[in-house]
Design a protein that fits this description.
The complex is a heterodimer of chains A (366) and B (303). Chain A has nine helices and 20 strands. In chain A, the strands form four sheets. Chain A has a six-stranded mixed sheet, with helices on both faces. In chain A, helix 2 runs parallel beside helix 4 and helix 3 crosses helix 4. In chain B, helix 4 crosses helix 14 and helix 5 packs parallel to helix 8. The chains are: A alpha+beta (366), B mainly alpha (303).
Amino acid sequence: MADVALRKVVKRYDDVEAVRGIDLDIADHEFIVLVGPSGCGKSTTLRMIAGLEDISDGDIMIGGDVVNDVPPKDRDIAMVFQNYALYPHMTVAENMSFGLRLKHYPKAEIKARVTEAARLLDITDLIDRKPKQLSGGQRQRVAMGRAIVRNPKVFLFDEPLSNLDAKLRVQMRIEIKKVHQKVRTTTVYVTHDQVEAMTLADRVVVMNKGRIEQIGTPNELYHKPATRFVAGFIGSPAMNFLPCRLEDVGGTLQIRLTDRIAFALPPARAARYNTLPRTEKLLLGIRPEHLTESHAHLGPGVESFDTVLDVTEPMGMETLVYFGLDGTPVCGRVDPNAGAKDGAPMRLAMDLNNMHLLNEATGAVL
Amino acid sequence: MSSVTIDKAAPTRTVKYGSMSRDRKWALRWSYFFLTLFAIFSLLPPIYMLITSLKSSAEISAATNPWWVFHPTLENYVGLLTSNQFLRFFWNSALVSIFVVTITMLISVPAAFALARMRFWGSATLATGVFLTYLIPDSLLFIPLFKVFALFGDWTGIQLINRWYVLLFIYPTLTVPFCTWIMIGYFASIPKELDEAAIIDGASWFQTLTRIFIPVALPGLIAATIFAFTVSWAQFLYPLVFTTSTDQLVLPVGIITTLIKGDVFNWGQIMTGALLGAAPPLIIYAFLMDYYIAGLTAGATKG
């Protein structure tokens, strides 16, 4: 086991920069998830840690040693691929032991390790089967088993659950978390699924266009996003962004959303935003769960307004409501018994204690 | 199999005009018709050869029904199989084919692996180039090649012409490009993640080739082997040009040069020799056909 460090790592393909100078410190035993839309450089970063891609610039360190020019087999890492990449002509046991056999481990130890990994992953019964006789979830377990038996310094996962159906994905997500709790190997996990990222990670690295947007615990990213990209990427349904501006009305700071709708900011927020120029074009970032049905007694900082719903989506435990504010589509989450109906008027409440204010031009969260 | 399924399904549902099963039925009928036609067309010559090989010279030249044997005899078979000369041809052919297949595989498998997987400068152009060399017909090549070996003999004093083993240098010019091309195709179809997984597991390039690629691409390897064997076993022009002494001849050339004396054709023995010569490829096909079924990659990845 070891820590991993990336120092100003760059990857260039001809004239395209896929990864643009990444700095990242991954502690020993940590579970790090790289998340971002496709083409953001997350997989390239993982493959550079694995040694499957050369780095164009910078340094990668595993356990304190610079491994820039160390071939993959000498980096002591194990990787799980999206499409499993099991050796089709070998049984499950042979697949799992391939790396150990190449390194000429004693037979008894190989058997012990394979048995232990198979027990851990609950695939003991499948040990003599060929990959084609396995289901997708079983294949993914075998792929994980192949990584575990090697007892490497670092586990690398490249979108390992993307090929599974939704139900199995949730199940395997829990399995991966359990396995990590048991073996405690430093893990770098790549996914485009922010739910996977949030649920698995000790820390999430949000990437966009070859750069790191923000590094933080799942809760930090959710509650204190640094940029519009992170705010919009983390959370489902995504955060709403409403064009707005600040104005002073009778000594209190107000946020004006439309000609008709303006709210007084809660004192804490007002103090924080007071220094902002009133002319600046701003965006109000508000998550759907902070746009709920209005009650008779609203708490401090919660403001209500009337709107007409476009579409409603009953989810069972909640109902998603969609409406427009001056042409900007907005999503809210209301109680399933709140009486939300397609095309019907509804009074909603916005919890401004959980609002974010963003600079429209730079996307920075203020 | 499929026709049975259709018959069973037919009573339970109304078959509409233009429906899948109706189209399928007609497609099957047509394919059976043409397959039968093709089978008859391609099987007639060997059947005729078999009939002729069982006749005596007198019966062959007699004006009787050529499709029937009235006095079957094995004299042609006994004659050939006890002739040292014929056995020598057979032996030469076997040696040449086995060596050529070995040489071809030793060159084309690593070459294909390199061209398919190791991205190096000009690898794509080289892969196309390899295939282009196959497109040059042997009838165009044999004179320059002969010249090359003659010059080689003049310069070094090593005389290769009129030795059976000269064919070991020549046949690979036909087999290596094509086998490399086949293997590039097979190797390219193996998912990239498979060799990446092997590399991370600690395999060298060579181990990746021998322990992952060759077993996974076995159907392709067998196809290439069959091709190389067939080419070297049946090659006629090159041995005709490069070998002349009877003890250096391979089977196809040997049969023609020794069993046709002037304008006298020993038809019985020619047919017998050709049949016996066709036996080894037939046996090899029969053996390898079972393995020659694609789908070994199933289960490697999703799909």
